[in-house]
Amino acid sequence: MRKNHRKRIFLKSFYITVAASLAVIIALVITWSQLVTPPQQREFIAAQPIDPNRPVVDDEGFLIVHRPDEEEGEDDDEYSWPVHTAPAWATDRRPYFWTFLIIGLNEGINANTVMVASYCGISREAYLISIPRDVPVHPTRNGRKLSSSYMIGARSGGAAGGVAQVQRDVQTVIGFVPDFYVLIDYDAFFTIIDAVGGIEIYVPQRMRYDDPYQNLFIDLHPGLQHMDSQAALHFSRFRQANRNSGYPGLPGGDLGRVRNQQAVIEAVIARLLRPENLNPVRINHFVNIFNDSVHTNISFTEALFFATELNHVRRADGITDALTTYTFDGPTGTVNGQSYVFLMPATVLELLNRTVNPFDRNFTAEDLRIVRQ
Fold first, then answer.
1. Domain with residues 97-367, CATH architecture
2. Which of 147, 215, 221, 312 has its CA 20 to 30 A from that of 60?
3. 181-204 residue pLDDT tens
């Protein structure tokens, strides 16, 4: 009798424990599903002045931004961006389609990496396009390059002003401002590589470069390497070797570095897609690292949504679980001692409309403001 009583107590406790556990699990699932919802579709975002209270447009249609540190009497304004309004047709968005502007800073100043990405929640296809840092974005101001955009905007408005200037200059290339921006400080962001246990990268050649002024010492050997955050950062930054060192620079120079940066991003995503990283606890951990190391307009709940979508990302060919990466490319040239990459509108339009265009209608050459050679 006593034994049956103990058995009933045990079973009752067991059922209560199981029921309580299921209730907690169900509550967590419901809470998670409520948090992880698709972000709202956004209308066309036109680039805005850094200081909307004092916009001044010159005769050529360029906004003039006054530097805060200019001395009285000096004509040292910065002509920052061509006025560019939304095309009249840019109203109908592709459903469940989001675009991203990714800006990677070197030493917190220069935009060494500028990328535009897209993700379609219906087809589960993701694309990433790199825009070379040497693309000219201003035709009359000594051929200003995209790499200087962030620094110029940050003079007047800090990080927000820097992002706004990059948005304006990228808009001249692709015709629109992406929904979300992600401003990355390389030194901070690359800590996520350590969080996932490092990445596998194939190094195509010996990479050797020393710059004591930047406290930068790159020494990578060719072959498949397991990299921590520092090695991956060095791999992403390498472009040329020291003169008379006997070591070669990257074929293609800055375009070669762009390809290496894309390889790092693909390797990080591949690591994140491992089953052990696709659980709510790990995803939340990565989202926290992301929020600590970047400046972005992606909210926490939006970041959770995109993080959970990672396991759906696939190439357009449906074979490899990863991003499909491209680069806006064009002929290189030198003007007044400065090297540039000159984009070809026809090439940009074909890739733009096939991959990251968030609208139901294709862009045309009239919608872009690409600076020609």
1. 3-Layer(aba) Sandwich (3.40)
2. 147
3. 988 876 666 778 888 889 999 999
